[in-house]
């Protein structure tokens, strides 16, 4: 696996964790702290996957997701959350085109299993 991944989270420790995990998987990783910064990068660069926190300061994760999908509809976006699974947020984000959810409080091995699964599934869907 060798993806170019954008990690969007307003918590530096979370950005660092995901960056470290993904670099071990041979991914190229860029990290930003806000939806606004994410949109700037998505406009300028090509990413395979975006890991996007649902709760961001400023522009929300859902708003960022919508704008990312407006710019690049086929870009794989996986939502990350530390707030458990809010059914309304999950439904709304799926309507907006997210490929899945990863909980920040999951064990590291489960985070990577889910990341690989969502990435593979989303890539297969874009090929159809």
What can you see in these coordinates?
The chain has 128 residues and is α/β, with parallel strands linked by helices. The protein has a single domain (4-127), classed as Rossmann fold (3-Layer(aba) Sandwich). It contains five helices and five strands, in the order βαβαβαβαβα. It has helices at residues 12-24, 35-44, 61-71, 87-95, 108-127; strands spanning 4-8, 28-32, 49-53, 76-81, 100-103. The chain has a five-stranded parallel sheet, with helices on both faces. α4 links the parallel β4 and β5 (100-103). α2 runs parallel beside α3 (61-71). The longest helix has 20 residues, at 108-127. The mean pLDDT is 89.
Essential attributes:
alpha/beta; globular; 20% strand; 128 residues
Give the total of domains.
1
Order of strands in the sheet with most strands: 2-1-3-4-5
Report mean pLDDT, rounded to a whole number. 89
Oligomeric state of the chains in view = single chain
Radius of gyration: 13 Å
Give the DSSP E fraction (strand runs of 2 or more residues).
15-25%
Strand pairing plus helix content: what structural class? alpha/beta
Q: Can you count the beta strands?
A: 5
Q: State the shape.
A: globular
Distance between the termini: 20 Å
Order of helices and strands: EHEHEHEHEH
The helicity comes to 40-55%
**Unreliable segments (pLDDT under 50, ≥5 consecutive)?**
none
CATH level-four homologous superfamily name = Response regulator
Number of helices: 5
CATH class: Alpha Beta
State the CATH architecture.
3-Layer(aba) Sandwich
**Mind summarizing the main beta sheet?**
5 strands, parallel
CATH topology: Rossmann fold
């Amino acid at each position: 696996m060798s993806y170019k991944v954008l990690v969007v989270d307003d918590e530096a420790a979370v950005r660092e964790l995901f960056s470290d995990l993904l670099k071990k998987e041979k991914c190229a990783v860029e990290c930003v702290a806000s939806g606004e910064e994410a949109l700037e990068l998505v406009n300028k660069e090509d990413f395979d996957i975006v890991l996007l926190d649902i709760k961001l300061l400023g522009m929300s994760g859902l708003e960022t997701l919508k704008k990312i999908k407006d710019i690049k509809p086929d870009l794989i976006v996986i939502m990350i959350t530390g707030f458990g699974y809010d059914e309304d947020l999950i439904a709304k984000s799926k309507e907006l085109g997210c490929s899945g959810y990863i909980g920040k409080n999951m064990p590291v091995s489960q985070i990577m299993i889910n990341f690989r699964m969502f990435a593979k599934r989303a890539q297969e869907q874009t090929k159809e």
